[in-house]
Known about the structure:
Helix content is 51%, strand content 12%. It is built from three helices and two strands. A two-stranded antiparallel sheet has the order 1-2.
Amino acid sequence: TTKTTMKQEEIIKIICENPQISAKEMAEKLNLTVDGVRYHLTKMKKAGLIRYEGSTKLGKWIITK
């Protein structure tokens, strides 16, 4: 099993509510910097929890676990 941090749980919840959300919007909701959000997203992608499909502008997040 992969351990998820509180921030990652919150990111997953936010993605559930809005799969098209940008890292910038996530940062605002979580009171993190955009880089902070990207750090968590990268870790979650490597762990196979989420993936991003589509183009930068029109793509969406998909929760895989």
